[in-house]
């Protein structure tokens, strides 16, 4: 067995000389646009532990249990540090998204290091010397910009290596070294403009706000529908926006926790407890008082009748801190489903989290008997919209990209598995007849995460037509004959709701379904809408291309579409009345419980 130096990320400062054999920890080390740097090396790549999807699911269940233990411990610790006495639900709302993401990501990094150091002959590893303070996020938004890049991940690997029996060489970063990503850039003109608009919107809405009314923020409804709903609820429409979290410096003295070590805890359970105090965002620790001070100055209602959001539950710490305090006082929290995969994925942390923190989770049609707070309303994204497409237009192939490093766990490709997904896309295009291939427009994902998706497409198909994610999707659909969805998320739920001819395909081994969803996908499969191989999808597209209407308008096809939409992308006849009803209901329940 050849002895190799372990390389953990694409930060080339940490790589040994060109003639030294290396073991790349994962595909994330080999940036496509840096191919000359690695393709001629004597290198191997460690197998990805979650290519075993059964292991992934077992690990998810283990991490969910561990997360609940850690959340209770963290709630007690933060209550003590801040001299407050809030419930676990309060801290779940505020810190739960970060904790869940961090635990799942840390486990992935730890498991890969353990696998590499066990199965290979590793002679050493080089890590960058630096302060751990520089990778402590200020808030959840800051954290999400950190974990997709090499700088944060390299530092995490470096810290975890302290628990591994491996020679570690600490080096200084080169000034001319390649750095793929790091801290988020300073806000640009558009971001500053948005912040000014948000401030103005809050001031105007604040003048019109009463202490007790319904509070909507990032509802996911089209603005017109959002305002109409507020009018139906008997209040003047408000456009609420959040503000930035105060920036707070790290105070090491506040992070000297004695980590809890439960009897019988496994190695990772011990490690993660030590790492939590090093990485918890300053907004929940050093900057907590400043964060609360900001929420107290917001012109939002003091005693909201109900709080409704679809997007602010995870990344917006100002909203989360404000909402957590209101919920603690009894205000009901409603969360609207904001995308696809929900209600059908075999596992999904973000779905579990939302259902756990809210009084009503408003789905796009599905429900669960054992969860009384899961309430079907309809597809919020299409309320008030009409489909416009072209039956003689192009085929729109809609792509997705996921971060090169795993982040939170749900039924989807993880890390290097995006390359398998991309290979499926190429197989689809390659399987089309030459003439039909020229009718395909590939809609690239707006974020690339270092995969080099555009160049990969051009290297495989130099003549392929690409849209780089700049045009609004609705504009592209206007010139689309067939909408081709390639992943289990939001896109096809919209196209099916709007009755746009749709073909779906993906690898079911990377998008595992819960048992209740399987019959609905089998129904779509029987009429040619859903396919589990790219070749099958390409054959069907070629078959119906010249007369899409004969296929799509067939009553059997439409019946399958309607049945699926009723479950996962329902559009009620009076959607705003349905929302009004559930908001009034939860407000009434809140008042009655307050009187008991």
Strand order of the largest sheet: 13-12-11-14-15-16
Give the mean pLDDT: 91
- The tally of helices reads 22
- Bin the helical content: 40-55%
What about the largest sheet? Answer: 6 strands, parallel
Question: Strand share of the residues?
Answer: 5-15%
> What is the SS-derived class?
alpha/beta
From the spread of the alpha carbons, the general shape counts as globular
Radius of gyration (Å): 25 Å
Report the strand count: 16
Distance between the termini: 72 Å
Write the layout of secondary structure elements.
Layout: E1 4-7, E2 22-24, H1 35-38, E3 43-45, H2 53-82, H3 88-119, E4 122-128, H4 140-146, H5 150-160, E5 168-171, H6 189-208, E6 214-217, H7 223-232, H8 267-279, H9 288-297, E7 306-309, H10 312-315, H11 317-328, E8 333-336, H12 349-357, E9 360-363, E10 374-376, E11 394-398, H13 417-431, H14 434-437, E12 440-443, H15 453-460, E13 465-467, H16 473-478, E14 480-485, H17 491-497, E15 502-505, H18 518-526, E16 530-531, H19 534-544, H20 548-552, H21 555-568, H22 575-595
Parallel strand pairs: 1-2, 1-4, 2-3, 4-5, 6-7, 7-8, 8-9, 9-10, 11-12, 11-14, 12-13, 14-15, 15-16
